[in-house]
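Methods: holo model generation. Sequences were used as deposited, without trimming of termini or removal of tags, and paired with ligand SMILES retrieved from the corresponding compound records. Each pair was processed once, and we did not select among multiple samples. The sequence and S-adenosylmethionine SMILES for this entry were:
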Amino acid sequence: MFSPQPVGYVRSPYKKTDEIPKGLGAKHEAEGVLEILPQFEAGLTDIEGFSHLIVLWVFDRAQGFELVGTPPCDNRPHGVFATRSPRRPNPIGLTVVELLRREGVLLHVRGIDMLDRTPILDVKPYLSSVSPELLRRGWLAEAEAARVK
Ligand SMILES: C[S@@+](CC[C@H](N)C(=O)[O-])C[C@H]1O[C@@H](n2cnc3c(N)ncnc32)[C@H](O)[C@@H]1O
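and the model returned the structure below.
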């Protein structure tokens, strides 16, 4: 194993978790900035060509973990690995954002769902490879269907 160190921090309009849209149909359109630390700037070379990025980050303000829990968008409990709960054994978040522009070490992005000053572990180009007809959405699809009834 290794000891993860942040490669940067998120600048987000969200200061508290209750400001972040949650639940079924929640839209994440907030703009923010991924501020990469200067010693990693060379790693951003050629990133401008990608429309979307995967951001791996730390749920640094989550407390402990829960292996089975009921998410805000359903009334049934699910295993943590079948949800996007912040309370995970390894508190790592993953968000796909749209890259709007780069200014040096600053990546201006849309679609953030993290709190301000969230540590960033990694950034990778998003390359969607699973065709929509092969995707199954498990309990979430059932919860969405129940909501529209
Ligand atoms: C449901 S999680 C999903 C996060 C990410 N898209 C994922 O799938 O891993 C998003 C929630 O995490 C919480 N959150 C965001 N930033 C956080 C942080 N730095 N520490 C702890 N919780 C955070 C907020 O309550 C937010 O609504």
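The first helix runs from residue 138 to 148.
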